[in-house]
Amino acid sequence: MKITKDKVIHVANLARLELDKASMETFANQIGRVIDYIGLLNTVKTEGVKPTTHAIFLTNAFREDEEKNHLNLKKTLSNAPEKEEEHFIVPKIIGG
Amino acid sequence: MIFESVIGLEVHAQLKTNTKIFCSCSTTFGASPNTHTCPVCLGMPGVLPVLNKKVVEYTLRMAVATHCQITPESRFARKNYFYPDLPKGYQISQYELPLAENGFIDIEINGNKKRIGITRIHMEEDAGKLSHNPAWSYSMIDFNRTGVPLIEIVSEPDMRSAEEAVAYLKQLRSLVRYLGICDGNMEEGSFRCDANVSIMPKGSQTLGTRTELKNINSFKNIEKALLFEINRQKETIHDSARIILETRLWDPEKNRTLSMRGKEEAHDYRYFPDPDLLPLVVDNQWINAIKAALPELPDEKKERFVREYSLSPYDAGILTSTRELADYFENCLKIFPRSKPVSNWITGALLGLLNAEGKPVSESPVSAQNLAALLKLIDEGTISGKIAKTVFEEMARSGKSPGEIVEEKGLVQVADFSVIEAVVSSVLDRCPNEVKAYKQGKSKLLGFFVGRVMQETGGKANPKIVNQVLKEKLES
Questions:
Q1: Which A positions 70-89 lie with beta carbon below 8 A of chain B?
Q2: Does B82 lie at the interface with A, CB-CB under 8 angstroms?
Q3: B238 & B277 share domain
């Protein structure tokens, strides 16, 4: 399947990846080949076969609605690249 | 050309469970930031989300109450997008195979019933809370809300006016509260609404291009936002311009909707089944158990009130608008079993008081027992209807029983013939001109005399006796 450069840019953008021009060509090519390979699955006859929703044949794993321990604030924030007192800090999202 | 508006609504209702949808963290509102978190809701690698059974039960209640078909085997999906309030980079939701589909609710507009289709109801997790301040160079995140269970209720584009949309939302909110699954608080965000709006020539079958309205947090704003947007679309077409498929934010301060640019690309969510969560199977036994445990719902209750208590559909509608108010009404009737006066006092004085104080009926300073006792006092002739208003106000202020207040303030009605006769005589003596005029045929002056007597007795004289004595004296 032919994957256009625009498609690669779109997908890279969705995944927040920055690509240089040269790798765009490479990826367009490779993604096309990957999709062709996966496309082999389309040759399997699946009429009358129930769609698989999960790889394991189990259903209904539940929890009761009971509160258990929380992490403490210090642990919660311990991996944060930036924090301020009780909050995670991120670059400004909206506003002037 | 005459245009018709077409509205579909997406409602997010926060479920009142104790814990989050996929982990055992508390859902209590207002905790100090980031204290109700754990590795699961923080989106740490290697954790396993496990579904809260109560979330399924609550969603099933709503599904059954809205006449939906329950999907025998439903599943969860990942909705992928990047935003700082979403720690995993995806929201666990349902996409294909939602828990419930193809239901409906009935709304009433000016006494006419209309059926609004429910496309689907699915479960998903809420995102965290971002705080922005124009003065800051950064944003702050609190993940306490991350993973709080939501149901999304998607309607068919069946509504044709802002009024119908508001009626639908009110009905939906009343339902989730009756079912005890959501507190329905729009201002606090536990009941949120997005609207899809388009217009088309009246009678047309082809829907126009729609816009999606977000950020609407009260019934009043929904009505205003829809009216604004419908009008904006009409003007756009009138100016021979094109309506663009876009998301628009409602600005309650400026009373207008504004385009949120750059959203188009973000709509590519790349949903896929979440491998961390097993398929959810709901059998008939479970559905039947939910059905059996369902409380009496607003529509049924309203019909019963009309039938059993001979109320007008309008009054029955008000009294059944919340389960608490309906219970209040029926609790009054246990003590004072006359539905008309009880209904009048609740829809008049009591709701007036609660609206003025901004309180729900559950926090009413006047209890059902006390209101019923007050009506009993009127009925027995102990106090007049006029004095009852004063007593009610005092009950609202102090929370005391009407008996106590009547006794403390000496408000017992004067029904003693000789006492009233004395006051009447004194009033007539002081108004010779009016007496003359009355005798010459100005019979309307009777009201004037009654007023004076009432004034003299502090409103306590029995009006029937006052009338009787006055007529006797004036016509003798």
A1: 70-73, 76-77, 82, 84, 86-89
A2: yes
A3: yes
Residue after which a domain boundary falls, among B228, B258, B288: B288
pLDDT tens readout for residues A12-33: 888 888 888 888 889 999 999 9
pLDDT tens per residue across span B249-302: 888 888 888 887 654 455 688 999 999 999 999 999 999 999 999 999 999 999
For B403, residues 6+ apart whose C-beta sits below 8 A from its C-beta are B373, B377
Half-sphere exposure of B444 (CA within 13 A, CB side): 1
Please count the residue pairs, one from chain A and one from chain B, whose beta carbons lie less than 8 angstroms apart: 134
Q: Which of B253, B288, B323 is the last residue of a domain?
A: B288
Q: Which domain holds residue B333?
A: 296-409
- Contacts A90 to B, Cβ<8 Å: 84, 130, 138-141
Q: Are residues B263 and B242 in the same domain?
A: yes
Distance CA B224, CA B218 (A): 10
pLDDT, one tens digit per residue, over B130-154 is 988 778 888 999 999 999 999 999 9
Identify whether residues B239 and B349 lie together within a single domain. no
pTM of the model: 0.83
Tell me: do B244 and B151 sit in the same domain.
yes
Is any Cβ of chain A less than 8 angstroms from the Cβ of B61?
no
Nearest to B13 by CA among B123, B106, B93, B95: B123
Q: To 10 degrees, the CA torsion angle through A74, A76, A82, A86?
A: -60
Same domain, yes or no, for B327 and B343?
yes
